[in-house]
Write a structure and sequence with these properties.
By secondary structure, this protein is mostly beta strands. Helix content is about 5%, strand content about 55%. It has a single domain, classed as monomeric porin ompg (Porin), CATH 2.40.160. The chain has a 14-stranded antiparallel barrel with strand order 1-2-3-4-5-6-7-10-12-13-14-15-16-17. The protein has a two-stranded antiparallel sheet with strand order 8-9. Strand 13 (about 235-240) and strand 14 form a beta hairpin.
Amino acid sequence: MKALTKIVIVLVLTLWSFSSHAQQIPMYTHYMYNTLVVNPAYAGSRDALTITALHRSQWVGFKDAPVTQTLTMHAPLRNEHIGLGLSVSNDKIGPTNNTSALIDFAYIMQLTAKARLAFGLSGGINVFQADLSTLLLEQQNDPVFRNDINNKVTPNFGFGAYYSRERFYAGISVPYLLENNYSKVSENNGGGTLIAKEQRHYFFIMGTLINLSDNLAFKPTTLIKVTNAAPVQADFTASFIIMKKLMVGAMLRTGDAVGGLIGLDITNQLHFGYSFDWSYGLETSKYNNGSHELMLRYDFIFPSRKQIHSPRNF
């Protein structure tokens, strides 16, 4: 019965990834370090060439569970009002695989000596693949699952706004504006069979840094995700920064998971982070060993800049 239950859940997850009533964009426990993926206005905000790599293995021990990788890089131009970036992500769940590559552009306005407001645009492509013929079905001749989708390329665009001060930031964004359809040509009448549709997602991100003493700071952050016909989901993270080097925190994802994070500034430019979260609100929690995430970020500081104009706490 356990084996049968696992097969049923894998099939449900696959259909869930196709559904128009679910959140389709990957989740990240390290969203506060992976901001460019969800908001293009973040590009150039660190006054350095910043490269961030992230790997997430979700529901470890569960066959065909989601696995996600992202790679971002961004920097300001010589014109302090322009930031450019590149965001690449790969998300695999069951027989489906979605890869995206976006170029990010941000226009940065200096509101005051300590506050900035940026507006961002992104544009690029998604490459979607679904090996539907590999699924074990009760009815193997189901026409919807008979043929695969091979490297379906679709364009997409995103928009965001990002406000930042030395110890506070807030942003809103829509990473993917277009709601692309994925369909297959019917063998009988040449018509199309709709099997997947993207849904537009709306994000709100916010965080602050509160100095409790010379060697201890409190860093609460949140990420709220909204999409049509799905429950609003919010990540709440409370972290403590010790000796300006070590980060220890806890997280709650509403209706889904709880977990912990740990991070270390190996040097002033290199940061390493790890997180573990456990799903409490899903049937899958009985059959997996939690989710792991690894994050590495490096800042190539520009020697020509006499000082860092923007805060680098975020």
